[in-house]
Design brief:
alpha/beta; 13 helices; six-stranded mixed β-sheet; 2-enoyl-CoA Hydratase, Chain A, domain 1; Acyl-CoA Binding Protein; three-stranded mixed β-sheet; globular; delta(3)-delta(2)-enoyl-CoA isomerase activity (chains A, B, C); homotrimer
């Protein structure tokens, strides 16, 4: 049953009584859902680039696209309800044992119904990938490739799918300086991408929200990508003085043609879920309100197909390209190592981190 | 007096009007005499040992040694004359004469307005491809590649375009058992797909209704695909313990990206005509009510373009990939030979056939 | 006293402001002195004998032998100084100074806001590409590849983007006859397409109106393509007895799948801007009424991204394919040389020109 107007008004009152500031991210979301529920899709002109606050609000509202008013109302009520009941945000250093089996700090991994599910679990960091998280994902993929499940799924906990490489990784500069950091990052990245290239079973992304950077570029190595209509796909490499990775310099032009791929990878155009689907990066888009239910119903059905046949069929499609993809990965990482030491990149990261420090 | 060129042409026309299939033995002899009469002694390299059809034709032609052209012409005329007057062919097949010119049992083939039209003609079997039909399609493609038409079209008679491989093919197990059956099926399939890879003129599918299995996967080798909005595209390989063929493991990811290709080829998602068109597998979709009229109007216009230019342009697009496609075809067939002997596959086919037996 | 770095840079800026074309002889000398001043003695391999433009430049540079860098700088400054004060260039071309800087007869080239804009300027000929225009586009691309702009844009002045190869080029038959004409056209075309394959910065097409023939096929080599909804995309090669060029026999099937590519390239289907966008040939379509405003706003924003990063990212996407594309280009040109001498082609061009003569 959908939330009534009364539920909606109750929720609005509850917001005023919240004991803790829910943070800007959540407040923007509440703002957006309120506008969508009362006025429908965003109908005001985009604020100027320097009008930061209004720009953020406009973005939040626009992101909801054509979400129906009653879905927005329902989501608003659900979000407020979750805020009122959530006790304390759990620090990522203190994992609750029931949620993080196998000793993962940054992931939750489960396996049932023939599906191994690897969930990014740094929601307060928008699931940005820390150095530790890179390593844990590699371990989890290794384990999933050897377990009995038919399918392996990656998804995010919280609002984001994954916001990409955690730029604070770059602040942890070793005694060898930037050059050594660039070199070790190169090796980590290459090994990480390699795990996706070589993964032997159907690998599926359930993109529950915005995806940024490497979490986008890797999608070309997945066998199916299901997205909520709330998801966006953004690879702002050039603004950061960086260049594409995850084999995207090869897979994206192959999937969508170079005229579309360049706009994403070189000019940093952000795609909606619908656009990403039209261009073949995403298999299918679902309304956010029914996303989880529809996707898992479908995946459970697929997981009942004969597991060995699935593996054979995936590999007849993929194995032919593996050598090529390994070469692409190596080449992209060499270029990135160079980029990371460029002025363009250092300036961009410095700016990003100093802006962040001021907030 | 020796047969004149005119007698020879009359005899060729008479062959097309034969009311009964003269059988493969006679057809091979006609082929050989025709080649000898027009080109002289066999002058082409011997086909590979597994290229059965071409091997048989090559053998027949070679057998004629240095028989002079005019003797060959005379023998051809005599042989046709004997066929036309012979009471009953020894073949056990009983084709209806009006529907099956040129002796095809499972096809109707016509040629007019610059278009050779190969029609699947097992409507009561949803145009499922029997072993005989595989062979006849190969013969029809060979003939079409050598005739004067500008375009070659494949389409289905009845409600279906084609329901794919006839699973009852698997019940005809030879003395060598499943292993031998898998081996011979491998060879048949590889030769069949090869005919599509090598076809030298624009090859067009007119998909009048549902398409299943290999009739779908082959579409990546066609130069244009027009579909009725009643058509669907379904490759339920995994449920049958099988893996993709027809070069689809290569062509589909190239056409639609791997996120869409995997859902079809590995998870067996059925596509509507509109979806198949959006994903580039289909050139254009037409309402069923006007489908035939619109498509043939367009094709007749295309067939008026200079035939040799069409052939050259097709080949500059396609020839670059032929070697790759041959390797893909070989690889897919090796995998399938293995799959056909797997438990997954045998269980699935057993289930299918026993369900069918109960009906 | 020797010319300082500052004098040198001033001289470079002065060159851009020259009101009259100094002629190819002088431009080659400027090129050579610039290279010598910045890179020292000629250090690149000698271009092939048919690569006329690069050969001329290489010759000019090589001629300077071991001239020291600072002498080259001084000579450059002196030469520019003499040009700025010289009354009239000796060139027989009579460009209108206000519209045609740098002496282009068929183009207008500007450079501001980080964008070099190469505009086709034969609006009364629907911007058909004459032999001279092929050469000027090559020169303009060469210059753009070396200037400081971040992006290079091609667009058309007037109603058309570009109507393709000017068929009257075929009427200028040299003493060697059609065979010699076909041979020289082959070389011109190959060099022309090569410039697009090798272009090192993001290359963008702003398709303001109908595009025909080679102006369409080249789009697969652009990094982004923005189109007015008035634009159409038409490659009527078969009707002219010709075959696809501009690497389209490779890029188009890659971008849109062969079922869509063949209909364009072989059957000459004309696409609307919307269709071309759905098929990945076009990045985005805008209403004609706001086209120029929206596109340039976007491009100016993109041009603010770090120029070197853009160049690196373009090349990681493109460089991997360059060798392949060069081979495709060579192959397409060989086929076309043959086509141009075919009856199909000669008849078609004769018809076209005689129809034109009657108008």
């Amino acid at each position: 049953m959908r939330a009534s107007q009364k539920d909606f008004e109750d929720a609005m009152n509850q917001v005023k009584l919240l004991k803790k500031d829910p943070g800007n991210e959540v407040k923007l979301k509440l703002y957006a859902l309120y506008k969508q529920a009362t006025e429908g899709p965003c109908n005001v002109p985009k604020p100027g680039v320097f009008d930061l606050v209004n720009k953020a609000k406009w973005d939040a509202w626009s992101t909801l696209g054509n979400l129906p008013k009653d879905s927005a109302r329902q989501n608003y009520v659900d979000l407020v309800s979750s805020l009122s009941s959530s006790p304390e945000p759990s620090s990522q250093v203190e994992p609750r044992a029931d949620e993080k089996p196998a000793g993962y700090e940054t992931l939750v991994v489960t396996s049932e119904d023939g599906i191994t599910k690897i969930m990014f679990n740094r929601p307060t960091k928008k699931n940005a990938i820390s150095t530790r998280m890179y390593e844990e994902i590699m371990l989890a993929l290794k384990a999933a490739s050897e377990d009995k499940s038919a399918l392996t799924v990656l998804t995010g906990i919280g609002d984001y799918y994954c916001s990409g490489n955690d730029l604070t990784n770059f602040t942890d500069i070793p005694p060898g300086g930037v050059e050594e950091k660039a070199k070790s990052s190169h090796i980590l990245l290459r090994n990480f991408v390699q795990c996706f290239i070589d993964f032997p079973k159907p690998l599926i992304a359930v993109v529950n929200g915005p995806a940024v950077g490497i979490s986008v570029t890797l999608l070309g190595l997945f066998d199916a990508v299901y997205a909520s209509d709330r998801a966006t796909f953004h690879t702002p490499f050039s603004a950061l003085g960086q260049s594409p990775e995850g084999c995207s310099s090869y897979t994206f032009p192959k999937i969508m043609g170079s005229a579309k791929a360049t706009e994403m990878l070189v000019f940093g155009k952000k795609l909606t879920a619908g656009e990403a689907c039209a261009q073949g990066l995403v298999t299918e888009v679902f309304p956010d309100s029914t996303f989880q239910r529809e996707v898992w119903t479908r995946l459970k059905a697929y997981a009942k197909l004969p597991a060995n046949t699935l593996r054979v069929s995936k590999n007849i499609i993929r194995s032919r390209e593996r050598e090529k993809l390994r070469a692409v990965n190596a080449e992209e990482c060499i270029t990135l190592e160079e980029r990371w030491q460029s002025e363009d990149c250092m300036n961009a990261i410095m700016n990003f981190l100093s802006r962040k420090a001021k907030l």
